[in-house]
Design a protein that fits this description.
This protein is mainly β. Helix content is about 15%, strand content about 65%.
Amino acid sequence: MKSFLVVSTLSAVVLLWASQTVFAQFAVGPKAGWSLSYVSNLDTTIRLNLGFSAGAQLDFIIKEWLSVQQDILFSQKGSQIHKGNQFKWENFYYVETTVLPKFVWSRENLSPFVSTGPYIGFLMLARFTQGDSRSREEGEIKLREDTRSMDYGWNFACGIHYKPIRIELRYGLGLRNYERYGSRWHTNRTVTVSLGYLFDFD
């Protein structure tokens, strides 16, 4: 964990410092989207959990074919767990930051791209709903106590930038067990489709 955080932090600092000091062109704007998430390594029937993400994106343009994207997002993750007539919905709400080196194929205003890089999330809220066909229960405190306050992982993304609109498909691979207790390894997995609007500054 410590090595991952050190590498991620140093990468972010070096890339952003280089972009700000050497390259003057950047773009900034809002983004929002819908996500489908689940939790790995559960012994019950898992259904994809519908969520959302929203925040800001910042692009530092290094070359015509290379840029560095940083996001700050409020993201919902979790899962729907079903076993017989019993169900449990778990929702985790994080503030996430990402650093994604991005490779771009520029074609005038239409630019396909691929990107990959680390993310770190800080837990803001954890809620569950559980029950059966006759009753249900909701709670927050116990799930928050059982969930680690920080999550991290790796993103893989692709999309199209048609100035000034950006459409992105992203897969988030969690690399940390989000449970404080228990012997099994449970991580967040998320697929997100987002729409962004960028303002260019030269």
